[in-house]
Amino acid sequence: MNLDALFEDLETQFETALAKANQTQKFGLNRLSASIAGNRITLDRPVLGSNFVAGLISGKAIWRFQPHRTLGVAKLTFNQTPLADVQTQDDIALLSESLTGRFVRYSLSGDGQQIRRGRVLQVMNALILFESPNEVLAVAIERLAWLEVHADDN
């Protein structure tokens, strides 16, 4: 058996498989449903990140950021038509783009049901800086249980 011919054949098969994988159509998410702390939540047009999911709460004017670690099993519904390009973002980039200057409601992991409110000054590294009457509060993104932007607050 000729080793050069064998390697040529394997290389051809690999290139064919790689080309086929690149031609696979990508479908974006239309809806995500999950149970979080016993409550059912459905997000329309969700964005999936490496460690979060974010989207509009179905039927409400509320945008929600939810870390993966707080999700159990999620049911996904995909779009029927392929998307030209599916992009992913990290949590810091998404929150920096969408939160600055907005009033938000949020809860921290381990805080029970306490809901906090604040206006976001900026997202700096992995911290969200909130405006307070006398001081600036910094909250680590990794400590969030959830974060919401309500249309009627803004």
UniProtKB/TrEMBL annotation:
Organism: freshwater metagenome
Phylogenetic placement of the source organism: unclassified sequences, metagenomes, ecological metagenomes
Protein name: Unannotated protein
